[in-house]
Fold this protein.
Amino acid sequence: MSASTVSRTPAPRPARPTGRRPAWLRGRRPAGRPDARPAVRVRRQLPTSPWLFAAPGLLVTAAFVLYPFLSTVVNAFTDRRTLVPGRFVGLANFRELLHDDMFWIGLRNSVLYIAGVVPALVILPLLLALLVQKNIPGIAFFRSAFYTPVVASIVVVGLIWVWLLDERGLVNSLLETIGLGRVGFLSDQWLLLISAMTVTVWKGLGYYMIVYLAALANVPRELHEAAAVDGAGAVRRFLTVTVPAVRSTMVLVAALSSVAAFKVFSEVYLMAGPSGGPAGEDTTLVMLVQRTGTGLSGRVGYASAISLVVFVVTVVLMLLVLRADRKEDA
Amino acid sequence: MPMSRRALAAAAVTALVLPLSACGSSDGGGGTTDASGKVEGDITFETWNLRANFKDYFEGLIADFEKKYPGTHVKWIDQPAEGYADKISADAAGGTLPDVVNVSPDLAVPLAEAGLAMDLDKAAAPYKSEYLPGAWAGHQVPGLPGTYAFPWYLNTGPLFYNKALFKQAGLDADKPPKTYDELFADALQLAQKSGGKVATLANVPTIEDFGRYGSALMNKDGTGFAFNDAKGVELLTKYKQLYDAKALDPQALTATPESTGKKFLTGAVAMNPGSALDLDNFKKQAPSLYKNIGITDQITSTGHANMYVMGLMVNSRTKHAPAAVAFAHYVTDAEHQMSFAKKVAIFPSTAGSLDDPYFTKEDGTDETRVRVAAAKSLKNAVNYTPVLFSEQMKTALRNEVAKALQGKQSPKDALDNAVKACDQLLRQQG
C-alpha cells in the first residue's frame, strides 16, 4: 500500500456529543444498518466514576493498611491481649516503655543498624554500578550474579550465613587454618549485630545497584569527556561529575535503606535466634514487637505502643533525609 | 440523592473505626459444656505437624469415626510446627478456632482463660477414669476450676551421648553420668581434654532443668514463681562454671533445639536429650555417630523424669459439641492411643496402657530398650513446665540466665530478676 492511498483517506469524524444517553443505554437498539456497532458515548462528568475506578485500590489499602494502622493506634492506648479485649489505659504503655530495658536495647540496636548499614548501602552499590556499567564481554553474568541475593529468600540466605559463620563453619575453619583462631560471630553480641548488618548489605547491594545503574544512564557522557579534557582523573571525575549527577538517587537510597534498616527483623532473627542473641542484647524494635505481641498470651496493647514508636521514628527519619536533600538543593 | 464529599469521608472513617472497638477478641464467656445429644454434624480437627508422617493413620481414624457415627464429617487440618501458637491465636482471635485442637498445656491455658476451651470435667466426666490421673490433671489451670483438654500422648526420652568423645577424654564410655555431680565433672574433663573444642551440653538451663534439679519453680498456691531458691541458684552457678570452661557450648546462649541437635550430630557436643525418634535420625544422618551412640537415663535430683504432654482441646463455641467431644475422645481412647504409639515413639496417657508388653518387654534392640526405659520412667514422670509459664516468661528466664553465664550479674541476681519479670507477666496475664 502506497503512502498516497493512506493519506487521501479521510479520517472518520467523531460523533458530536448530544448530551443524551446513548440509545443502547436507554434500552433501544440503534436504527440503521444491522451490522453497525452502536456508538458508545460515556458521560465525562459522571461523579462516581473516579471512585469506582479507585475503589479496588482504596478497598485493599483500607483493609490492609489503614485499618491495621488505626487498630494499632487504638490498641496502643489499651491493655489488650491476644484473647482478652483491652481497657483504655491512657499513656500507661508508653510510660512502661520508658522503664523497659529491652525497649532501649531494641532502640539502640535499630539505630546502630542504620548507622552501620546505610552508608554502606549508599556507597557500595554506586561503586558496583560503575563497575558493571561498562560494556565488556561477560558483564551480564556479573550483573546477574550481584542481583541474585536480592531475589533469594531471606530465610535461605540467613541459614547459609549461619552455617558459614558458625563456630565450626567455613569462615572459622579458614581463620583457624591461618592461625587466627575461631571467632564467635554468632555468640558475641556485637559480632552478631555486625554479621547481621553484613548480610543486610550483601543482600541489598544488587537492588540499589540497579537503581544507580538507571541513574548513571542519565549522566551525560559529555560531562565526563569535558572533565577528562580538563585533566580530571577517574577519582576526581567520580567526585565532581558522577556524585553530583546521582545525588538525588543517593538521597532516595539513603531514605529507603534507613527505613528498611530501622525495621530490620529477618536477618537478626535468623542469626541471633528468637531470643535476640545472648541475653536478648541483639533484639531490634521490630523483634520486640513480634516477641511481645504474638502468641496466645501476647500483649497486643504494649506491642502496639512499640509499633507506634517505630512509626514515629520512621517518619522523622524520612523527614530528616528529605530536609537534608532540600538544604543541599538550596 | 448525591452524597456530599464530607458525608462520604465521614462514612468511610466510621466504617474503618467502628470495627476497632470490637476487633477480634473473645468476650471470655458464652461457651458450652453440654455435650449431650446426637453425635452428628461437620467438625474440624487441627493437629500439630502430623500429616507428613501419619497421613494414612489419621485418614483411617477419621474414616472409622465417620463410619461409626453416620451423619458426621471430620475435616482434618494440619499445621506446621513453626508458628503453631500464632496460628491458633489468630484463629482464636478471629473466631475461626477449629472444633477439636491439638494443644500442649501451656497453649490450653490462655484458651481456657478466654473461655474458648470446653471444661471436660463437665462435658466429658464419664471418660475421666479412662486416663492416668496425672495426665488428666495435665490440662488444668491454677485458679480456674475444670480440665480443658483430653490427655493425648505423652513423651519422655533418654539422654544420648557420644561414646567416642567420652573415650577420647579418658572417660569410661560404659559408665555415663547418673547424677548432676557426675555430669558436671565429666563435662569439665571433656572440655579440658579437648582444649575447649568439645562441649558436653549445648543448651542453657530451662525451667524444666530447674525443676529436675529440685527447684520449687512456683509457690504452693501457684500465684508466683520460686525458681530463685537455693537449688536454682546452685544449678545456675554450676552452669556458669561449665560455660567458663567451654563445657557448655559457647553458642548455647542463642541455641535452639534444632541447632543443638545438629551440634550433637556433628560431634561438637557430647550429650543431648532426645527421644526414641532420634535413633532413626542418627542412623540416616550420622551413621558414624550411630555406631558410637550411648543411651542413658535423664538426670534428675527429684527421682522424677520430665515428660511432655499433648492434649486435644474441644472448642467451647463448637456448633456440634456432641460430635466434637465424641471425636476428641475417640482419638484419645486407649485403643487408638495404643495403635498410634505403635506407629511412632510416643506413649499413651490412658490407664493401664503402659503395662502392655509392647512397653515392658525388650527384644535386644536399642529401640525397644529406649521405649521400655521411657515407659518405665513415665509412670512417675512429671511435666515440670508450669502450665502458666508463657513464651514471654521463657524468654525472660533465658535472657537473665544468659547474663549470669556471661558474668554480667550473679546467678542469684539473675534468678531474682527472672522471677520478678515472670511474676509481672503472670499478673498481666490476669
About this structure: The interface with chain B takes residues 47, 62, 66-67, 70-71, 74, 79-86, 166-168, 184, 186-187, 192, 272-275, 277-280, 291-292, 294-299 of chain A (CB under 8 Å). The mean pLDDT of chain A is 84. Chain A has one domain: 92-329. Chain A has 14 helices and no strands.
